[in-house]
Amino acid sequence: MALTISRTDSSSGELSSRFAVMTAWLTGLSSVAILFSIAASQILLGAALACLLISRRPLDFPPRLGLPLVAYAVWTLLALGFSDAPVAGVSQVRKLFVFFVIVVVVNGFQNQKQIWRTVQGVLIGGVAAAIFGLGQFGSDYLTLAQQGRRFYENYIVHQITGFMSHWMTYGGELMVVLLLLLAIILFATDCGKKHWRWLGAFLLCLALLGAFTRGIWIGTLAGVTFLVGYYRRWMVGLIPVALLLLYLISPSWLQERDRSIFNPEAESSGMARLVMLRTGLRMIRAHPVFGLGPERVGPLFRDYVPEGTTLPPAWYGHLHNTFLQIAAERGIPCVFILVWFFYEVFHDNVLRARCARSKERALACAASASTVAILVAGLFEYNLGDSEVLMLYLFVISLPYAWNRHQPAPAQPA
Fold it and tell me: How many Cβ atoms sit within 10 Å of the Cβ of residue 122?
C-alpha cells in the first residue's frame, strides 16, 4: 500500500504525456548509467525528477520508508548545525539528493515492461563492468609477471576498478548487481534462457574475486546465503562446502587473500581498521548525540587517536565502517534511524516476497538480499559514502514498489 500525494492533475494533456514518456526514458538511463558514470547518472536523475514534476502525475512513495528518511535528513541537518565547521559538511547535505532515486523509480515508469527493460539494462551494464574489470585484472597480472614482481603484495595496493575510480566502489556495485541477477535466476521462473544469466553471474563472481575486496566478499556471501535460504533452506548447508572447494582450487594469491580475513594484523589495512575502530569509539564517546559533524571525521581524526598509537599506512579520511562513521559524524541516534530504514526495507520486502508472483517475488528478494549485503559489508567499509553504491542500492529496493504500482487489476467475476 503506497502513500499517495495529491496534486493537480493535468496529465491528460499531450505535453504532460510527453513528459511522462521522457521521465521513463531518463529514469532508465540514469539507473544504467550508475555503473559507468556517477556524474551522468545524477544529471539524468535530476532531469528525470524535473520531467516527473512537470508531468504533474500523482506521486506515490513507500509509506514505511518516508518517516525514517525524513528523520535521517533532519538529523543530518542538526549534526551540521552543531558542527564546528558547518560549511565543510554541505556536501553531505547535497548527497541527500540521491534519495530521490526512490521517488523517480517508483513513479517514473509507465508500465512493468519499462521496469523490466531497465532491470535488464542494469544487469547487462553490470556484466559489461565485470568483463572490463577482468580485462584490467589480466593486464595487471601479465604486467607483474613480466616484471618478475610477486603478484599479491603489488596487486593489493591498486586493485581493479572497472569503470569506477576505486575498487571498493566497483566491488559494491558488482555485489548489488550479482544479488539482483541471482534473485531473478532463482525466483523469476517465467523468464527463460537461464543459461545466459548463469554465465553473467559467473562473470560477476570472477570480477568480484578479482577486485580483492574482502568486506564485499563477506557482504555478498551474506546476501547469497539469504537468497539460497529463501529458495531452498536445506541448500544453505552446501555453501560452506562450495567455499571450501573454491578455496582448494584457488591460486595461492587468492588463498592468501582469504586467510588475511582472519588475520587482520598481517596487513597494514587490517591494522589501520583496528586503529580506526578505537579512534571512532573515542569520537562517539566525546560527541554521542550529534557527532563531530558531516565531513569532520577525517580532519579531526588525529585529535582522537589514542596516545602512543602508530598509524599504519592507510587513508584516514573516514572510518571504513558505515555505522561507526555515521555515529562519529552525526551521532548515535542517526545510526538508529539508519537501521530503522534498513529494517523497514527488509521487513516490507520479505512480506511482499511471500505472496508475490515470479518477477515481483524476484525483485522483492533482491531488495531484501541487497539490504543484508549492504549491512554486512558496511561493517568493513563506509559503503553508503559511495554515491554510486547508494544509488544502485536505492534503485534495487525501489523496484518492488514500482512493479506493484503497475500490477494489473484482478479480473472481475462475470
Answer: 25
Give pTM, 2 decimals: 0.93
SS3 330: helix
Query: Which cell numbers hold the place of 56?
Result: 504533474
Tens of pLDDT, residue by residue over 147-167, are: 999 998 889 888 999 999 999
CA distance 285 to 300: 14
Own/partner long-range contacts of 187-191 (Cβ < 8 Å, ≥24 apart): 187/231, 187/353, 187/358, 187/361, 187/362, 187/365, 188/358, 188/359, 188/361, 188/362, 189/358, 190/358, 190/359, 191/358, 191/359
CA distance 23 to 15: 12
DSSP states of 134-149: HHHHHHHHHHHHHHT-
- Determine whether 194 is exposed, middle or buried from the number of CB atoms within 10 Å of its CB (0-12, 13-18, 19+): middle
Angle between helix 167-187 and 112-147 (nearest 10): 130
Spatial distance between the Cα atoms of 66 and 68, rounded to a whole number of angstroms: 6
Q: Cα–Cα distance between 107 and 89 in angstroms, integer?
A: 30
With a CB cutoff of 8 Å and minimum separation 6, the contacts of 93 are: 76, 77, 80, 294
Say if CB 356 and CB 362 are below 8 A apart. Answer: no
DSSP H or E segment with residue 60: strand 59-61
- Which residues face 3 on adjacent strands? 61
Q: Which residues contact 155 (CB under 8 A, 6 or more apart)?
A: 140, 141, 144, 212, 253
SS (H, E, C) 216-276: HHHHHHHHHHHHHHHHCHHHHHHHHHHHHHHHHHCCHHHHHHHHHCCCHHHCHHHHHHHHH
**pLDDT one-digit tens code per residue, 377-388:** 999 999 888 999
